[in-house]
Here is the input.
Amino acid sequence: MKETKNWQEMGLTDTEYQLIVDGLGREPNYVELGMFSVMWSEHCSYKHSRKALKMFPTTGERVLQGPGENAGVVDIGDGLAVCFKIESHNHPSAIEPYQGAATGVGGIIRDILAMGARPVALLNSLRFGSLQNPRVRHLFSGVVSGIGGYGNCIGIPTVGGEVYFAPCYEANPLVNAMCVGVVNKNHLMKGQATGPGNLVILVGASTGRDGIHGVTFASEELSEASEKKRPSVQVGDPFMEKLLVEACLELVENDYLVGLQDLGGAGLTCATSETASRAGTGMEINLDLVPLREKNLTPYEIMLSESQERMLLIVEPSKENKVMEICHRWGLNAIAIGRVTDDRILRIFKDRKIVAEVPARMLAEDAPIYSPLAIEPDYIKEISSLNLDELSEVIDANRVLLTLLSSPTIASKEWVYVQYDYMVRTSTVIHPGSDSAVVRIRDTTKGLALTTDCNSLYTYLDPYVGGMIAVAEAARNIVCSGARPLAVTDCLNFGNPEKPDIFWQFLKTIEGMSEACRILQTPVVGGNVSFYNERSGSPIHPTPTVGMVGLLENIDKRCTLEFKNQGDIIVLLGNSFNELGGSQYLLLIHDLVKGSPPALDLQKEKSLLETLYQAINEGIINSAHDLSEGGLAVALAECCINGSLGARVALEKDNLRIDALLFGESQSRAVVSIMPDKIPSLWQLAQKNGLEINAIGYVGGDTLHIQVDGQEWVNLTIEEIEESWKKSIEKLMS
Amino acid sequence: MLYKVKVIVMPRKGILDPQGQAVARALYTMDYKGINSIRIGKHLEMEIEGENQQVVEETVKEMCEKLLANTVIEDYRFCIKEA
Amino acid sequence: MLYKVKVIVMPRKGILDPQGQAVARALYTMDYKGINSIRIGKHLEMEIEGENQQVVEETVKEMCEKLLANTVIEDYRFCIKEA
Amino acid sequence: MKFGVIVFPGSNCDLDAYHLVKDVLGKPVEYIWHQKNSVEGFDCLILPGGFSYGDYLRCGAIARFSPIMQEVVKFANRGGLVLGICNGFQILTEVGLLPGALLRNKDLKFHCQYVHVKVENVNTPFTNLIEPERILKVPIAHGDGNYYIDEQGLNSLSEKKQVIFRYATAEGTVSNEANPNGALFNIAGVISEKGNVLGMMPHPERAGEAILGSTDGLYIFQSLINSLERL
Ligand SMILES: Nc1ncnc2c1ncn2[C@@H]1O[C@H](COP(=O)(O)OP(=O)(O)O)[C@@H](O)[C@H]1O
Ligand SMILES: [Mg+2]
Here is the structure.
């Protein structure tokens, strides 16, 4: 009967415990059990998701590193590669918004650093409940200042992201942070402990009691009890992380390292077992040497602590002195705590005694893989039917437009991003506020276009189509800046996978995303799964955040969304349909979450992307903005506001409803503005790519004026629409 | 009655206090030796109207729990005096 | 001897304390009424080795003047106890 | 002529200042590590933005005691030109080379945005190529830029024309709505009495290339180069 309860308390099932006993050929001791419990937690082992993730296309000509390492890596020419990853920090942020979000940023930076890359940009994808709720406002402002607090201090610009507000996130906000780095291909690192005899050096912050079992906490539903899980939340020290970044990059550039690994979830246990397992080696670690923040930490605590701002270095003994010198110059503690062995066993010593002795691979790779049951949820059928004929038509389109523009999900996110230093490193050549941010790459003509996207209303209504759209929308945002999409990192935020309807959402979403990634040739090179986003049994909408990176060959060709010149012709690319399911219009005006999301034809999407890409790179168009939430009218308003220019637009109704025409969210569309003499070139391009385009008006005046078949529907001054759009979040927050 | 209230909010034991550490390091390099364990928190002073000491105590406690401290990472204590 | 030192650093009188104001506003909207003049400063706790109370006092004063407070904008006070 | 960019371990605009001087303006520039004990051979020192030593306690409070700052003070007292940007400005007030202090922004939030500043005094080594009353568009990025000084100090600053930049609208009106952080008298930058040490919250080094959105920051660097050449 001994320790019967221990494994259950640590989140392991009886069967999993038996697997451990069988694998070891004996019962694990307490320290070992703790190590297994964190490594076999959902967060570290991906035991429920691993199989499904295999559906993603992960290879491509430019892919240098797909999933499996600390971050994905893609070749961008000139001997350089881009390295990026997105990760969730949802549960900690729900409990302590500032530190939860801050340490989320810190964690993702270390993943990029572990590849040997210089972090050059951060993004964040956020989801909250309604801002009417004071608790939500507290979470929102805490998360935003936490993200800013960390990124601003460390000096990595936060250049983009997204924020959505919906009731399903009320108790379980989502905080996904993405980091992008650039690395000289010769300096790419791996998290591998190769070379028996090599030293294992721990550098950075000392180890404290914080964050023990953080990963277990992330692998459970939130509850009253989780508010009591105090040690699971950590406090970040961005200054320390800055020192770590600089020191590690100097070590990498000098070729002093054999392997490099961050300490994140599951702390030292994860870093040691994963690096050894990847290299097929073992490791001996002496816990007496680990610098501690307080006295009397037990081996269990030291192995499980998730103290922030630490890295693990694998170093040849002959280079130890040089490594130490660099670390000390940056004011960092560094100490060899062990060495690599050839017997594949992770052996932990304390007071000269072995306190844990486990095959490294067993911890890192041998967690059971589950194939949970997937059953289509009942709600899908109930809400998918939407009869447009029963829906009253728009009467006052001006009011509808202002309502949409001022809804926090659509409104300007300036309140958020002014709190982020998005300019530091003076490389941000498209600031937040456009479709994607662009960061120039020093000493080249190139730039990286960056975005995160996911409309979780769509994934809720139809996870397959919603998953496709998340990828397509990201690609559209990338192309609108003039870049070519390269690859994807994703953060799959879902409810409890052990529930069949949640797992069905999960599978369908991945199927949809995979299909889109295949057709659009944007392989998935890394990502993160966050399950158990529920509170009191009510799950969030499936939220597969797509982080996408694109390559702009020449930053002088970059394109932004705002109208630039009076007299430019406004052209709508793509087709509009009577599609209102899942739209913000339906939600905000008719209070309905219903219908099917707009259909997505990936071939059409490709035609749109090709046309936009070529048009921008041939210098044909002056602005480009994709259509997303709020449809055509909202997109036009955004082009006007940002350019401080009005527009006169005349549309034809054809067989469309007015609301669908103005506010519908049909996919694969964009508005561009163009000098009149460039029209023939654009038409040629569109024709070549099989894309329908229509000139719908021109830029000018100080109002947004839209008529349909000669009748005026929208007539608002730019000032009016700007007031609704720009100040909305600020007003709610003050 | 008017009461003077002082509230002290400190990082919890075991929780990293980067500020305290930075100051400790700075004092050390400034040649102040023999200093252990600096912790830095917040000090609030306010005046509050209340029926009696006990009522005020309850109010202040509630304010601390709800707003002034995040008990996940911070401890608080307070003292109340008639003004 | 080991001494326990507490240092309180407060915004000087007459100097805007936006943090205090923000907390006052938040408490007000949370329906705590009758609260006046919140000021927020820093609270430092440390242990320090020293020959005797007087020596420690001088050291702490010096530390405050040099580092812990910026006397252009802040006042400080401290208390020292044997540990 | 040689510029030096002081590098504290938490500086993060050191790269940007260096890049501007070297790549945009083509002038010699070197980094100077915070533990160095000499600034020999430099004609102008830049204290860049960032978080020097993490900026715990108060911004710039700890940086002030670094070895290099003792040299910066001597250099300034000899009349050397020192430009403190953002965190650099905070450090200069902490070390006493400039009067006043920088408090938390009035709304307690970090602000990264373009602002406009009105140039109040063009007879300084940092502004001599700028037309009087000219409005510059430059970004700010700080959480503690709320300039404070007591009344007497403010009077003295005004009298001696030590207020160099004030937050204004694009049209040049110095007003509350143009003040991003609550700074007293809309002060965005001040100069030392001798006129050789300038501290400013806005980042001129971020406004040095058209592709970044403004080139107004160049006026300040070109003025500096101009004064150094005349020396
Ligand atoms: N959390 C955030 N952090 C930084 N920038 C943000 C954030 N949320 C939104 N933005 C910026 O605001 C702009 C509009 O966002 P969004 O409406 O999501 O764009 P889109 O519909 O094109 O994906 C983008 O430039 C985006 O980067
Ligand atoms: Mg877009």
